[in-house]
Write a structure and sequence with these properties.
Strand content: 25-35%
Number of helices: 16
Radius of gyration: 23 Å
Helix content: 25-40%
Mean pLDDT: 94
Number of strands: 21
Shape: globular
Length: 467
Amino acid sequence: MLTKNRLFDALNGQGMSDDAIRALADSQYFLMLDALEKAQFDEKGRRLTEKVQLNETVSPYSIDIYQRFIALAKQNTPEGQATKIGVVTASSRDAFEAADFYTGVFNQTGVEVVWLPLTAAFQGALGDEARGFEGCSNLEKYQAAHQLYDRKRLYPQRFERQNKYCKSPSELTSLIESLDGLFFNGGDQSRTLAALQTPAGVASEFFLAIKRQLEKGDIVIGGTSAGTAVQAGGFWKNRPIPMLTSGHSRSALSRGIFYLPPPSARCDDGSCSDSLLPGDITVAAKGGTGFFDFGLTDTHFSERDRETRLVVATALTGQRLGFGVDETTALLVKLDNANPMFEVIGKAGVFVVDMHHGQLQQSNQDDEVNRTLGGLVSYWPNGTLARKEGKQIEVEFSPLASTAHIEFEEGQWRNATTPLCKGKSEVNWQQFDNRYVLRTSSESKTALFGSGLCGYHKVPFVITNTF
């Protein structure tokens, strides 16, 4: 019995170097791991499941967010019935393995939890079944096409559940229509989108059922990491709102964005792609689910210095707004055709870029190129309420919403802007070979929060880069 790391050590000892392991194609690499994985069952033949203890989490803010999600779902629950939450784990390569954690989280909250076996492989099998071929009986073949192997041996009950709904998709549609809440996991947002669409890239009946529930106000939809990023979509000024899929801020202004599939998760920010350099930003032109159609979405935000990535992607895709959600933080959205409402809860905040009057300028001199990008930015800490009224977003800061001071060591942009709330009208710094300047205007609004975060709204910014 070996852990994965000890397995790699053993392979090294047999003459297979780390470089040789990295050189394996995804299909070879994951086939090796999946075929060697041990099936875990107790003495009665029951599969051992991952256990979750929500009350022992290191962050109380996580509990707050989950509890708020459940409270919103309960508002949709008919009187006398149990609140029902659906979980989609398609963002993971192995949706079967990820299901234990997310169903375990919601089981801790006293609601009924159901795992929805939606994956790209499932959609592929359904598509062939609809065309008269043997799709559902060959689920393992479709899983292998997505670098997933041996699930029937390792997760027999979950495999059979997927096979059941493949043979009777109307039952899965009915299940979706009975949900009070739906939650998407983290991983790769492209996988989640593929799980909701047919192999031809068209919205599946399951996708349409979720949309109908949302339009009626009968369901609350949430997600973490990729499960948040996939929510972007829809249209703004007849332009599709794209979905960010990968990339880093370091070369955003000099390299721009690429309408290409993201590199394999095993790559170092695109290092094994023939079309991309490490860290290049990729976007899906047609966007994600469109459940959130106010602009681009990004996650793990301030902690990974993703402000430049979001600003550049918003500008170059011709969008007005982009929203970046910090870790252990949530942006709650109350959909209202006239005046949608936003609320920030959790540990940190939400970054918002507004390119309505923004500009990207470029000048060439000798062998150098200078690019300058400007617009408006906001940062809404925990407790902020915002309302979109026409083309404007108005905010109400609640500086005392979080009075416990927190040391936010990560996030250079977030830390560099703190002086704006301490009387300074301008801040500037350098990062990623870029120069950043933020200067408040008569329309700007700032507030220093008890957590130590600086909340600001409608602050003009300029980013310059010479290369």
